[in-house]
Design goal:
134 residues; mainly alpha; Arc Repressor Mutant, subunit A; three-stranded antiparallel β-sheet; 11% strand; DNA binding; WH_DNA-bd_sf; HTH_ArsR_DNA-bd_dom
């Protein structure tokens, strides 16, 4: 695939995607774990599912995320950079992630949550799933 040149509008949309703390937290978690489902992100971020889904949709529209459906669940991952601007921006942001205390805490919570019974597991007990959904 040929490298694409970004328009000013594309660049503006991408920078706006990076301008929100929740979206940065999502990008950081996906940078670390490569792919996460919405329920994992809700659990780690401690935010309501509709809010997390809105941020995921924004990041997808900005061209930063891709998704795949598996049963009832959607899994998100970072898109491959489609040009030098996108690649350099992701590289710069990922280097900054290590210095932010909130990102470090998110990473610890994600490690614990992903080691525990997954929220997407069909065999997960109903009580656990109901608690995670609240």
């Amino acid at each position: 695939m040929a490298k694409m040149t970004k328009s000013l509008v594309d660049i503006d949309i991408m920078f706006r995607a990076f301008a929100d703390p929740t979206r940065l937290r999502v990008l950081h978690l996906l940078h670390l774990h490569k792919e996460l489902c919405v329920c994992d992100l809700v659990s780690v971020l401690g935010l309501p599912q509709p809010l997390v889904s809105r941020h995921l949709a924004y990041l997808k529209r900005a061209g930063l995320l891709q998704d795949r459906r598996e049963g009832k669940w959607k899994h998100y991952s970072l898109t491959s950079a489609d040009g030098n601007f996108h690649s350099n921006l992701l590289c710069c942001v990922s280097k900054c992630f290590a210095d932010v205390p909130e990102f470090i805490e998110d990473a610890k919570r994600a490690a614990k949550a992903l080691d525990a019974e997954g929220c997407c597991d069909e065999t997960a007990n109903t009580k656990t799933r109901a608690v995670k959904a609240k």
